Amino acid sequence: MSGMDATGHIDDLGSFISASPSSYHAAAEVARRLGDAGYTTLDEAADWREVVRPGARLVLVRDGAVIGLALPADAGPATPFRVLGAHTDSPTFKLKPRPALSAHGWLQAGVEVYGGPIIASWFDRELEFAGRLVDTAGTVHLVRTGPFARIPHLAVHLDRDVNTSFAPDRQRDVQPILGVSGPDVLTHLARAGGLSSAGDVAGFDVVSVDSAAPARFGADGSLFAAARLDNLSSVHAGLTALVRAAPAGAIAVLAAFDHEEIGSESRSGAAGPLLSDVLERVSAALGGDRSDLARAIFGSWCLSADAGHAVHPNRPERHDPANRPVAGGGPLLKINANQRYTTDAVGAALWARTCEKAGVPFQEFVSNNAVPCGSTIGPITAVRIGIPTLDVGTPLLSMHSARELCHVDDPARLSAAAEVFFTGLP
């Protein structure tokens, strides 16, 4: 498997997840790690002709999104791109404006549902708040609280039907408790960001996350549980592959977007102009024109890397009867006839060759016809840029839970295949 150490990879994935409680922290952690690997930060306001050159290693952060680029030594204006696209956000709860609440002696925080979480899984966990504050001078502060809040269940004595009909109200039932006295949530966050008071905060984007550390477990130690495996498992796989790869004949690109869980329609989402702007500016900085960029895009590929579903042992009828990927069986090739995933026959053949060269197995995923299929940034990227795209990812159980699960071997296998993809198409 290209010399990959699955144990080392899963331990490092745990460290990466622990450092990335929000999309803003994830983008900053990717940029930090790439900086440590010799990557130069790109300034969107600068003239890129000064820094974009053959052999360059570059990284750009926009809000909760991050793009890393590794240019081969022979890069030119029509050099194609090999893009691994992923996303930094996860389903969660986001602090509302005026989040300080109190009721019946309890301090609480007002939150709004973000994306499509399994709401019941968030109850009775110690939650952390994390994200960014913007002070009155416009300076951004990344903040996190550590274990801080909890959404409490109603005791079974007060709801005898809780085990047969639990359906939490998305407004009434999900406002977490913080304590019985002390500062409100925004004051606490302001202090965590080095500010004097909540009055110094002019704006904030703050979400909740399960504060429990990632962990290996199971009878044979083969299981791994953590928050935000969807989709930090793919971001980390792309990051580690990019650091190891030595691109030849194409520009390797890691594009980790924000806001995928709510449709990707933002300046830092896949439906926005971020990736297309970066690819166009790189080609132009290398001396290209629109024709050169079109030639580069024609010869490019994008791996849309997002988590997928392993077969559930207690509910196998929810899966396709013939295509049932298992934990530990290798990364997924995700296929959908209605283009919810972008994989076609050419992409499937490319993935098969890539995994063969990487020495890793892979398995197909297709939805049960009676179960609606989710989607990814793949179709968005294909439509937005015109780049040929296929969908892959790590098989999970409990996707969109506060804490998801995978096999310890599968993230490393995805990274090994991504390295082959970045280094040279088979």
From TrEMBL:
Annotated GO biological process: proteolysis
Cofactor: Zn(2+)
EC number: 3.4.11.-
UniProt keyword Acetylation, yes or no: no
EC top class, as a word: hydrolase
PANTHER family the record matches: ASPARTYL AMINOPEPTIDASE
Protein family according to the UniProt entry: Belongs to the peptidase M18 family.
The protein, known as: M18 family aminopeptidase
